[in-house]
Specification:
By secondary structure, the chain is α/β, with parallel strands linked by helices. Helix content is 32%, strand content 26%. It folds into 4 domains: 2-120, Rossmann fold, CATH 3.40.50.720; 138-223, Alpha-Beta Plaits; 226-335, NAD(P)-binding Rossmann-like Domain (Rossmann fold, 3-Layer(aba) Sandwich); 349-448, 2-Layer Sandwich (Alpha-Beta Plaits).
Amino acid sequence: MNIVIIGAGKVGEELTRALAKEGHNVVLIEKDARKLEQLISAADITGVHGNGAIYKTQLEAGVDHCDIFIAVSQSDETNIIAAITARKAGAEKTIARVRDPEFSLQMGFVRESLGISLMINPELEAATDISRILQFPFVLDIEQFMNGRVNIIEVQIPETSRLAGMSLRDLKTDGNHVLVCIIERGDQVIIPGGDTTIMAGDRVHVTGKNQSLTKLFAPNREARQRLSSALIIGGGKLTHYLLPMLLKMRMRIKVIEVEPEIADNLAADFPEAEVICGDGTNQSFLREERMSSYDTVISLTGIDEENLLLSLFAKQQGVPKVITKVNRTDLLKVIDCSNLGSVVTPRRLVADNIIRFVRAMENSQASNVEALYRLADNRVETLLFHVTYDSKALRIPIMDIKLKPGLLIAFIARKGKVIFPSGRDVIMPDDRVAIVTTQQNIRDIDDILSSD
């Protein structure tokens, strides 16, 4: 597909690399010549130097015959104007990133009246992700399918867990209605089989009935206890979206923000929350504000390094649940993240949504991608397909389907019922089928079938 992107920031870079890797013809428009040259050198793309909202620049980039136009510059106004211009110029689909809370309140109106196909907000997506994580205190991360009816959770196996040293076959015969989809062990990513053994320290991604997941990974009351208080460090846009969600959960909230004007605005907008103007990176100040008394600490400053250090300090202070915003995920490879807790990456959430949109456009008629999540540092994809009547995978017992390596079927949703499949289950027309895979470019349910 022909895709034009404006903006070479964090989201633009993530999208450019990911879409080029998937074989799309990507043209990047960027004002900063140095950034543009860096990305052209690093990815298999072409580029145009200039303002992506200008009609002449868009024509130079081929917007008039592109399949998808994506505006992810730093300016909401530029993105909206660029998307409208691209639509008028002939782009088939247009996507705009919009971050300002005031714009977000009218995103539906703007999208429908101005013909923008998709408007997406990274901070709002990240806030929603954080609120989901807080509803399951024992998880590191959670991805929801079917409007929350099915979850894939990520948990770390402690030394004391009875699951350490257990094979997946024994786990299943032990009466547990769960399916282990991914095991992360050091730098290794494993799509497991029945003979795979869970080890202490593993980060496992598991799906199953919510009560089964809770019983297995939060066996005591303390692990299941609802989080009732949160200390948020950083009062930016993400915090602005997150606060109403946490207040709805009836949490006691304190926000620490270093900029007086931002702190004043937050205090005025959210009188139910306690807002303190101060340096949230100062350890003595954090002790004075009784960091250790909170159920969760959420580090949301604009600097990744600060967030990482704050979260590690919160863990040292005995905070039960720590959540860290990190955009530059390469930083996670140079520090010990075993005690870091949950990591939220806004740019990746946005990229996943846009890539899902792209996959849906290019799919064959056999099925449609309804959800896509990239897990385990982008090394594994979970895709939810809607299966139609001409798929080659229909009515064959799963034990008899020749699947490609590094792939498993996580669940099947059929007429309101969720099936965590055994070898005897089959895929039927109109099913929703979730696939977990390390394979690249799975765009269709039939792509799971081995040609051998």
